[in-house]
Specification:
12% strand
Length: 283
């Protein structure tokens, strides 16, 4: 069925389509109200090398050590360290420890599109406080895990890579994109159900109407026995027969019907005598 055919059906069955559309709007508002609003917050860490570099000698005096600017030593090792930290934070056990068992709050930690010594943390939770608090937990966990990994490798403390909080947890903002997607999906499904129910009702009602019209036509062609005319058909008059001599027709004896009564008698009429004035065949 084309577009205008659909419009005609909806217009003809408006008393079915209109309540269904109103119900769709009410259900869409209900979905929007019941789906929880998610809040998002984020933070950024940057990894830096120590001022004396990655080598340390105990016999060297501190004033003799060549010092450099840590921000000028972003090499591939810091990128590798950032990727190691993202793997640690991505562990399900670590996520359960930070977010809490059974919590709906989630977070992601990655090195971003550039892939440098930066670590981007993003969280989502059902409340703004939960989202901002989770960002702080993840940043603190990252700093502690970085120090623990270097101690586990027996690295000199003077050569430890440090993590600086570049962006503190941002103010959580509401995300309504998920709610809008839920409402859109529910609206599309309900509208399809509205069209299907309207077309089904139109088909059933049209079929019932045609069946009723067919029965009415059959009743008009073949009336019921109680409505038939029981008046006997008129008997056509009997045309009198001529006597064969050109004379007036002779009255016909009525045909006896059924068995004659006992008082009825059979009468034999004698043939008329020939007139001597008229010649006969023998003459």
């Amino acid at each position: 069925m084309d577009f205008w055919g659909t419009v005609r059906v909806l217009r003809r069955r408006w008393y079915i389509a209109l309540p269904a559309v109103l119900l769709t709007g009410i259900l869409a508002l209900y979905v929007y109200a019941t789906v929880p609003t998610r809040y998002e917050s984020s933070g950024v860490l940057v990894l830096t090398s120590p001022a004396a570099g990655g080598r340390y000698t105990a016999n060297t005096k501190p004033e003799d050590v060549v010092k450099v600017n840590p921000l000028l030593q972003f090499d591939g090792s810091l990128t590798t360290t950032a990727q190691i930290l993202t793997q640690i934070l991505g562990d399900p056990k670590t996520a359960e420890e930070l977010a809490g068992k059974g919590s709906t709050a989630v977070y992601t930690a990655n090195t971003g599109p550039v892939g440098g010594p930066l670590l981007f943390v993003t969280t989502e939770a059902d409340s703004a406080e939960s989202a901002e608090g989770l960002v702080g937990k993840v940043l603190e966990k990252t700093v502690a895990e970085l120090a623990a990994q270097q101690k586990a490798l027996s690295a000199p403390e003077q050569t430890f890579i440090t993590a600086q909080i570049l962006v503190k947890p941002t103010t959580a903002s509401a995300k309504i994109g998920g709610k809008v997607r839920y409402v859109g999906a529910a609206t599309v499904v309900l509208l399809l159900l509205t069209l299907a129910s309207t077309f089904a009702a139109d088909s059933i009602m049209t079929r019932a109407k045609r069946r009723k019209e067919g029965k009415d036509k059959d009743a008009a062609k073949d009336p019921a026995p109680s409505e038939k005319d029981t008046t006997p058909a008129p008997v056509p008059p009997v045309r009198p027969q001529s006597n064969g001599n050109g004379g007036p027709p002779q009255p016909q004896r009525p045909t006896p019907q059924g068995v004659p009564n006992a008082h009825q008698k059979t009468v034999i009429i004698a043939a008329p005598k020939p007139d001597p004035a008229w010649p006969t065949k023998d003459d």
